[in-house]
């Protein structure tokens, strides 16, 4: 497979034939020069703003026809309602002024709009929140519709934070795109923007990412981006921001695929940004990265990069190939592509994206800057993936902190671990258990300090990433391999050597099914290790079939949680996916 992995002609023909009857795509650039010679047009999207879906009962979106001088009782009710919407959106709510509850775009007059915004500002001030007008649309009858973002950072947080994994094949411009977004400077067409992200000399020399790099982009109350163009340090960005986007820049080359998969699974990304190289279109690596994200239940949005190097017709063909991938690229789940062309599309894209019914598509250029601001505005209004109910439920569970980095404090020799809190709440000064060690035991550890984005904190909530300094635990005592966790001292954790999983074989030679004794490398959250199939509920498993198998770790025991999703690979090829359905305690395992 070449670095570019060009899409096969058969796939292109299948995609073209499929879209002769597809009625759900939007022409991104309107009629092109070739349209006169080609009668096949890409149909318009059903999401053109002629109306909105009915107002959702749950979530962070509220429709209001108008808010004009409410009486005190009504005002208190509206404030309570706004507070509930903010809780649903983890500190963010979207108000649609001039829209009826059924979704009809009735609009309001200029005078009523001014009065409604005044009332909305009064409501937000009572809650200590801020409002930002995202978009204003004028209807044909000289009436107005306005989309307003209300943001309030929760009392126990310094800012709202989201993690976005950056996927895509080699040379698709992932690092350049992240560099442009986080440093406020356009690329020169020769990779200048990506130099700020590279960690190793060979990355600079080759121009290709081989490791996992984290970069942040902030937004303030007014929706303005806060980046390294106006700030010198990450601390300053965090201090000036009410929302932080953490980009997890991953490798695109096939020989670094295991690093990419580890970064996506271990760093618990909220969303995935799939970059597509416009000149090369959809390639094999694009499909594989898309499948990884969908298997791990990470919502995906697509960015077509380098559109300055292609004609409108070529880009439209890329969108057609993407549409085929979204509807046929992952089992029975289908996504409806939604090309974001204007600001008025953003709110609907962000709302329905979280519900996983659509896949927003952006077309950008890091050289000309086309649509970069549109992408940033989308990230600004993108709501947290976890609802308030999910956040509350996870906070009540025992602590489960997945460690992806281990360091040693040079001054004290104590261990410093970085990772993501899957469930529970970690507080400074409390004691936990860290492990498993090579023999399967766990060590007591006290969290002395907590840092998030290099800023000291006293508490970590479920879904947040942090670095912890552990007292009484030397960095040399912890194994450097993946799979370490920090758990509640009362949870009585047990490491396992064997576990049962339900797997689905997606890619394998048709004439060579897998059987008992098959070896493969499995990725389960932050665990990556070779496993052996010791039991199977059928004699042999062929491609596109599923089975229940028992896996045995070959090198060391691991802490595995039931319900975890897994991906297994052999060599450079992904073999299949699955889910852990049972963990076998060591006492019940066959020696």
From TrEMBL:
Residues 27-55 are annotated as: Disordered. Pfam families: GTP_EFTU. Gene3D superfamilies: P-loop containing nucleotide triphosphate hydrolases, Translation factors. Signal peptide: none annotated. InterPro entries: EF-Tu_GTPase, GTPBP1-like, P-loop_NTPase, T_Tr_GTP-bd_dom, Transl_B-barrel_sf, Transl_elong_EF1A/Init_IF2_C. SUPFAM superfamilies: EF-Tu/eEF-1alpha/eIF2-gamma C-terminal domain, P-loop containing nucleoside triphosphate hydrolases, Translation proteins. GO terms for molecular function: GTP binding; GTPase activity; translation elongation factor activity. Residues 159-387 form the Tr-type G domain. Keywords: GTP-binding, Nucleotide-binding. Belongs to the TRAFAC class translation factor GTPase superfamily. Classic translation factor GTPase family. EF-Tu/EF-1A subfamily. PANTHER family: ELONGATION FACTOR TU-RELATED, GTP-BINDING PROTEIN 2. This is Tr-type G domain-containing protein. It comes from Adineta ricciae. The lineage of its organism: Eukaryota, Metazoa, Spiralia, Gnathifera, Rotifera.
